[in-house]
């Protein structure tokens, strides 16, 4: 079977040869042109094709009082081809939409993978540049944390609260050994484990772990849900691209598209009303997807619009190292008190001299460092998401308008031209034209629609489920202020628009913006396979550093 573009070009060439007399309904004198088209469409000669018109008493669908150039076997073959044409038409119609979603789903996933590695890079540089003594020991905890972030984003069953706690549990023994009691320490695993277990009771990092949990939960979950929803969108399109053609629909398609050939009317096109009745009948079940598809795109749009500030994963991940620094500084400042608490819980350490390990971070990365510059409108994850949603919005009525588009764009004759009405060439179609959807088909004169389609019903159920997920993950503005801690705890403004009314005002509160060039870090390109000239990073928040008045 040849591809659709080649088939169309070849068929048009052959149709031009058959033009003379092929649009008249007086009856065909020879079946030569019908034979040519039939043989070419089937890619090879077929035995038993009539040379001249014959009685068509054996035909089941292409019944006519006039002599016919079709046999029963030709009709059966045309029936198969009509179904194949329908599948091809559906796939062609959805190709732009399918490519839009699949391309962006892949792009979002790759961007998130790159973003995770950039955030991990920032955190590693923080330890190498600021806390060099503990950098080697911290490397495993940093790597595990960002591995868990990726696993969660891409659908694994991991808990953000648990991996945030694990990170800070692992960090405390390092801070205690290298900053609070530097130089000499007990290197026993038992003592370090005791310190690690004591972290949640002592709270050496204040409420920063809770802030990280809140920010991770608010930003990771919407991004995870967005990826899941896009994958479902691809599944919906793949399913409808291979829609089962019912027996009634197959017969109607045969009558509309190929029965004219039997009478030598190879250039004829169906009347618009006739085509609409056939296609609306065939796609009646698919049209039931329309309100749910519309709601699906609207929910994606609402979720995307809400993903800003600390709901923006780019903002959160690329500021993670700043919160880690705040946590370490807080523990360092409270070192004497923490040392007394650890001594009470774990006892005094056996003080033995140790040699601080050197930073293991790649020197080439450290050499380049984090290049800071103002962003000049470079593409961010948020801007790409907005562009995608704007394009997707154009396809909100895809399933409701599909039957009409197929007729208007390709299948049906233009208004005012003679057309095929299922029996003959006429000036206009006189039967009533029904609407879209199952209920409207009760009066369809061309296709009988029975019952419901279990596959479509299953897709509708999946769409309803993901819509609930999308709506449940949309942050609500009235919940954007989160109280954490008590007695000097920080009030965190979750909205990304932090102004003087948020208590962030004053000079020096402007947002820090950083751009990390991928060309400065070849390992990013190697890891993700991206060939980007520049990856733009947004780092910082106007509300950070309040606690320490930096």
Average pLDDT over all residues = 77
Give the helix/strand class: mainly alpha
Order of strands, widest sheet: 1-2
- Beta percentage is under 5%
**Quaternary structure of the protein:** single chain
Spatial extent as radius of gyration: 34 Å
What is the β-strand count? 8
Poorly predicted regions are 6-25, 363-378, 476-550
The coarse silhouette is: rod-shaped
Q: Tell me the number of helical segments per DSSP (H or I, 4 or more residues long).
A: 20
Q: Give, in order, the helices and strands.
A: HHHHHEHHHHHHHHHHEHHHEEHEEEHE
Distance between the first and last residues' Cα: 71 Å
Question: Roughly what percent helix?
Answer: 55-70%
The biggest sheet, with number of strands, parallel, antiparallel or mixed sense and barrel status, is: 2 strands, antiparallel
Membrane topology: Lipid-anchor; GPI-anchor
Protein name: Glypican 5
Signal peptide: 1-25
InterPro entries: Glypican (IPR001863), Glypican_CS (IPR019803)
Short précis:
The protein is mainly alpha-helical. The chain is 57% helix and 4% strand.
What can you tell me about this protein's structure?
With 550 residues, the chain is mainly alpha-helical. The protein has a domain at 77-351 and 384-474. It contains 20 helices and eight strands. The chain has helices spanning 4-17, 32-41, 72-130, 132-153, 160-180, 189-202, 208-241, 247-257, 259-262, 272-282, 284-287, 290-306, 313-318, 320-333, 335-346, 363-368, 381-392, 398-411, 454-472, 522-528; strands at 184-185, 352-353, 419-420, 425-426, 481-483, 491-493, 514-516, 535-537. Strand 3 (419-420) and strand 4 (425-426) form a beta hairpin. Helix 3 (72-130) runs parallel beside helix 14. It is rod-shaped and about 110 Å long. The termini are far apart. The relative contact order is 0.14. Belongs to the glypican family.
